[in-house]
Amino acid sequence: MWLWHIKFLRVSFTPAFSQSGKSVLANFVSESMEGIGSYSPTQGVRILEYEKPNLNGNSKGAGCRFELWDCSGDQKFETCWPALMKDSHGVIIIFNPELPSHLKEIEMWYSCFVQQQPLLDSQCLLVAHHKPGSAGDAENLSLAYPLNKLKLIHSNLEEDPEDVRMEFMKYFRSIVTLINESREREEMSIIS
């Protein structure tokens, strides 16, 4: 996740659910070829480092270095989650919208990874990931409060990979803007 005044941006792909597509999306966003074509459950956490030369889309923008923390969906790693969240700039909750159990558990993950951390709702992104061959209805997904106030995107890497990439870049830019504004306020309070 990337910068102008920031040296790096760290975003956690939450451990919300096993086999929801977190690793596939992390690989896609970071342009990593690791593990393509095979499913291998993440053990604990997998950190992908990624650089985006021009995050804001023009040739004059400064680059940013990202750390994507791809967290395991296995609850046996729950004791590690506080350490995984430390110093995180954002959280991406990825779920399979076709599985009712995922829809029921999102609120618990949101509470654990966003509300119990010093993060704003704008630092959280919900991703309804549609796996290859799924016939999911992207239009009729309704989430209860407080999830319905969060940014929700639908991800289908077969049908619209560049739209998915563009949505992630928008999210990363918003996090960078938020961090830069916070740092500027902090600097101004020191000067004043």
Automatic annotation (TrEMBL):
One GO CC term, this protein: intraciliary transport particle B
Family assignment from sequence similarity: Belongs to the small GTPase superfamily. Rab family.
Pfam families recorded: Roc
Keywords: GTP-binding, Nucleotide-binding, Signal
GO molecular function: GTP binding
SUPFAM superfamilies (UniProt xref): P-loop containing nucleoside triphosphate hydrolases
Signal sequence coordinates: 1-18
Protein name listed in UniProt: Intraflagellar transport protein 22 homolog
